[in-house]
């Protein structure tokens, strides 16, 4: 008798293979499908790893609760985003952090409190996103 974790791992791999089979042939070489490793990930997310590599991350715990038609629809929606080149580009956090820090320094000079708070908020959000990405990469290496 197989354990629950073994059968669960087999079911996860089976679902990933099924989704890989749904990919159009021109995307199969440069689109990978992975299980999301974050603590509270979104259901499905596309991320451009490099110019020639796109990764689709899926939270399989939430994914299994959906009907097969819903899964296929969500998956094809992500495929359409890849084909239309509308996936969010990586690296906006560093630009937002630089803009926020520059804005904060400028607002110290002008002494406008509301704009200073907005600039610091932008820095905080982008800094938090950078911290989360680094923490996920560190956990996945271990």
TrEMBL record:
<keyword id="KW-1133">Transmembrane helix</keyword>
<protein>
    <submittedName>
        <fullName>FIG017608: hypothetical membrane protein,specific for cyanobacteria</fullName>
    </submittedName>
</protein>
<keyword id="KW-0472">Membrane</keyword>
<dbReference type="InterPro" id="IPR021751">
    <property type="entry name" value="DUF3318"/>
</dbReference>
<keyword id="KW-0812">Transmembrane</keyword>
<dbReference type="Pfam" id="PF11780">
    <property type="entry name" value="DUF3318"/>
</dbReference>
<feature type="transmembrane region" description="Helical">
    <location>
        <begin position="113"/>
        <end position="131"/>
    </location>
</feature>
């Amino acid at each position: 008798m197989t354990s629950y974790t073994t059968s669960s791992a087999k079911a996860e791999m089976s679902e990933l293979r099924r989704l890989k089979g749904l990919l159009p042939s021109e995307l199969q070489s440069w689109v990978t499908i992975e299980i999301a490793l974050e603590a509270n990930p979104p259901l499905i997310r596309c991320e451009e790893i490099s110019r020639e590599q796109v990764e689709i991350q899926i939270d399989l715990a939430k994914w299994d609760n959906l009907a097969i038609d819903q899964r296929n629809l969500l998956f094809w929606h992500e495929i359409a985003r890849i084909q239309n080149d509308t996936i969010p580009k990586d690296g906006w956090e560093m630009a937002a952090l630089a803009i926020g820090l520059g804005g904060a320094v400028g607002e110290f000079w002008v002494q406008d409190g509301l704009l200073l708070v907005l600039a610091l908020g932008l820095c905080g959000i982008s800094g938090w996103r950078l911290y989360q990405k680094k923490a996920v990469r560190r956990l996945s290496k271990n």
